[in-house]
Write a structure and sequence with these properties.
globular, Propeptide_carboxypepY, zymogen, alpha/beta, 2 domains, Helix Hairpins, hydrolase
Length: 457
């Protein structure tokens, strides 16, 4: 998630995102389907020329023609056994951040060095799975539109259309297990997107599970845990003075009352004030310390997201030769679009109870993994543990009584896990908000075990 919060509603300075465009690239394939008459998929074969990985790759756009929406994607085939390995869709959060951040900074085949050259990642998630990185909603990353999407429900319909056309173009993958993974605001996205997919009984692909890392899913439960995390109860020493911790505690009752009103009404008139008041009261004191909201152990430096190396990714993806090989049609790539972030806030989307969709997924017997790096502040493990423990699904009573077990990678403890049936919570030791960045080897073990069907670790 990004942080750029006004103090009052009157200070919300919103503007519509400008349409992004440039000369149109030549694409190798154009795909359409009678079931989706307003959608078209364009495909390029040339991203492999960039040397990010040696595997088969595709990039291009999903076009929603009657709405002038254009979603960019980049696909990497598995390094292992692509005919049998599963397919993973990866989504970054924000809302408004490009999934190419996940590609180059976290779990993709390569990172980008200071010389703007790719650096091989031996722990890429495409070691044993094919991975799709999708820039959504529109006006994020290489995606563009003259319009704007400002709520999770609308975004889910577009993602379903993308997947239908992708698997139509590449039918060799559509019978393989398919998983959706993501982090941060993907705690909103993924429950809704998966529910949208399950609502289409005629879908042409096999949704097998979902994975949410350090997500925001149940704010009413999670917002109580900012003060404990900042003030020494999450496994790290307190980073605030006692009076600051007390001020955060004092603000919680009103914060929770506002979130509850948002849950009950769904109105932006309830949800927007809840977002502004709670984020200023629960995140503001921490931000003032200058610490990294994504890793309580470090100070914020470099880009808007507190990591200097992210600047190299922006520079790389703005090179004309890179954009040409990928078919990118934007004048300028930005890792995060703060206008999109504020538009979602203005629509009241931030505080809505999307945890209800997780219940729907569990009752449909879809496996759900909630994982959380335990050094993150902004979507911390305490809050994620709490909402998974309180989730009112049919297996709640038995989930509550399950013992916490140690997750080991090799002979070392990598975290703690709790599982019942198709629901798993995993605390990742030493991971910040972006677990694959901080713990690449352990994150790969996590995803490999999960997609292989290991629900208990």
């Amino acid at each position: 998630m990004m942080l750029e919060f006004p103090e009052t509603v009157s200070k919300l300075n919103f503007k519509a995102p400008a349409k992004k465009s440039s000369s149109k690239s030549q694409f190798d394939y154009h795909v359409s389907d009678a079931k989706l008459p307003n959608h078209k998929l364009r495909v390029k074969n040339t991203p492999k020329d960039l040397g990010i990985d040696s595997v088969k790759q595709y990039s291009g756009y999903l076009d929603v023609e009657d709405e002038d929406k254009h979603f960019f994607y980049w696909f990497f085939e598995s390094r292992n056994d692509p005919k049998n390995d599963p397919v993973i869709l990866w989504l970054n959060g924000g809302p408004g951040c490009s999934s190419l951040t996940g590609l180059f900074f976290e779990l993709g085949p390569a990172s980008i060095g200071a010389d703007l050259k790719p650096v091989h990642n031996p722990y890429s998630w495409n070691s044993n799975a094919s991975v799709i990185f999708l820039d959504q909603p529109v006006n994020v990353g290489y995606s563009y539109s003259s319009q704007s999407v400002s709520n999770t429900i609308a975004a889910g319909q577009d993602v379903y259309a993308f997947l239908e056309l992708f698997f139509k173009q590449f039918p060799e993958y559509n019978t393989l297990p398919f998983h959706i993974a993501g982090e941060s605001y993907a705690g909103h996205y993924i429950p809704v997107f998966a529910s949208e997919i399950l609502s289409h009984e005629d879908r042409s692909f096999n949704l097998t599970s979902v994975l949410i890392g350090n997500g925001l899913t149940d704010p009413l439960t999670q917002y109580e845990y900012y003060e404990p995390m900042a003030c020494g109860e999450g496994g790290e020493p307190s980073v605030l003075e006692p009076e600051e911790c007390q001020a955060m505690s004092n603000a919680i009752p009103r914060c929770l009352s506002l979130i509850k009103s948002c849950y009950e009404s769904g109105s932006l008139w309830s949800c927007v004030p809840a977002t502004i008041y709670c984020n200023n009261g629960q995140m503001g004191p921490y931000q003032k310390t200058g610490r990294n909201v994504y890793d309580i152990r470090t100070m914020c430096e470099g880009s808007n997201l507190c990591y200097k190396d992210l600047e190299y990714i922006d520079q790389y993806l703005n090179q004309p030769e890179v954009k040409a090989k990928l078919g990118a049609e934007v004048d300028e790539y930005e890792s995060c679009n703060f206008d999109i972030n504020r538009n979602f806030l203005l629509a009241g989307d931030w505080m809505k109870p999307y945890y209800k969709n997780v219940i729907e997924l569990l009752e449909a017997k879809l496996p759900v993994l909630i994982y959380a790096g335990d050094k993150d502040f902004i979507c911390n493990w305490l809050g994620n543990q709490a909402w998974t423990n309180s989730l009112p699904w049919s297996g709640a009573a038995k989930f509550a009584t399950e013992k916490i077990r140690t997750w080991t990678v090799g002979k070392k403890a990598a975290g703690e896990v709790k599982n019942f049936a198709n629901f798993t919570f995993l605390r990742v030791f030493g991971g910040g908000h972006m677990v694959p960045y901080d713990q690449p080897e352990n994150a790969l073990d996590m995803v490999n075990r999960w997609v292989s069907g290991d629900r208990k670790f």
